[in-house]
Amino acid sequence: MATNISRRVFIGLFSVLASAYAALAQDAGRRAILDGAKKEGEVVWYTSAGLQDSNPMAEAFQRDYPFIRVSVVRAGSGVLINKILSEARAQKGLFDVFNTNQESILPLKARNLIARYISPEAAFYDDDFKNKDGYWHAAYVIPWFLGYHTRMVKKDEVPKTYEDLLHPRWKGGKIALGIDNGAIILSGLMRVWGKEKTLRYFQQLAKQEPTLQRGSPSSRIGLLAAGEFPLTLAAGNTLQTFASKGAPVDWLPLEPVFVQVNTIMLAAQSRHPNASKLFIDFVLSKRGQEMIRDFHRVPARNGVDAAPPRLFKGYKRLVENAETAENAESTNKLYVDIFNIR
Fold first, then answer.
1. How much is the pTM?
2. Label partner for 116 (CA 20 to 30 A): which of 56, 100, 212, 252?
3. Is 99 in contact with 262 (CB distance < 8 Å)?
């Protein structure tokens, strides 16, 4: 009996000591990052986010870490990828942190241009919003919904499923789809329905003679609000922004809801690795994600609800998969062929 008690006491004491040692090691690691960041003094952040979002984020970080200057380089995802690849060919590693869509991960990872870093904030993110090896974390997410013009569509006639879009009442330019970004729905549904069913569905959707629009989802939603068409598939946060400003726009999730992920990554050749880790941690922190929400985006962190919460609750989601993004070119070709886009 006494032996059993002694064993339990020993095990309990060992667990306490192990936890204390782990905490001390973590604190020591954090101090080393802080000390390194003070010496580095800068983070070069390549981002596809607008300056109206990226500048306030950089300024908030600098208030917490006044010894680190954040240099923001803002451009479209394609421009930044080309810039990074060009710099790599010239053996000039100029960026420290990069955040953009998931399609950009594979070309960077294939060329060993991004590094592993598992942020301590990763514990607050679901597995589909972080790479298990630490190559990327989700900075924010973009769920795609069906947007509709509230004066052109009766509440009881709003399509509730993807199949409902095939109803004869929606034929003849009633549904707006993106030329530049519409293939993401095709790609997502193929993962759930399979290629054959998905292609058959999109071929039927093409027979509805949808309006095909170039440009961003935001511009398409603006045309929806103006009454150019009654329905569109578009970015949920932007639909909600228009609705919140009083536009005759509302939205509904068609399940499964396809969710794009905007990622944040550490450069493999970062000249300021410690400062960069602090910046990534800040973006992923509760405070950083609350700022993301204030930017009218959808935070990915558990415990930080979107505004309103229904933007990211109450429906089945299908999260973009970086590992299958290599099929994007062939999927885009299928989309272009189905809708006869020239």
1. 0.88
2. 56
3. yes
Distances (CA, A) of 35 to 32, 107, 121, 232: 5, 32, 20, 51
List the structure tokens of 77: 């995802």
For residue 97, the cross-strand partners are 45, 266
- pLDDT grade for 12, boundaries at 50, 70 and 90: low
- Residue 342: count other Cβ atoms within 10 Å of its Cβ: 4
| Digit-coded pLDDT (tens) for 63-86 | 999 999 999 999 999 899 999 999
Q: Would you say residue 22 has pLDDT above 60? A: no
Instruction: Please say if the pLDDT value at position 177 is more than 50.
Output: yes
CA distances from 267 to 134, 140, 145, 204, 324 (A): 12, 19, 33, 44, 22
DSSP-assigned letters across all residues of 252-300: EPPSSEEEEEEEEEEETT-SSHHHHHHHHHHHHSHHHHHHHHHTT-B--
Strands (E), the chain: 42-47, 69-74, 97-101, 114-115, 137-149, 175-178, 211-213, 231-235, 249-252, 257-267, 317-319
- Secondary structure (3-state) at 45: strand
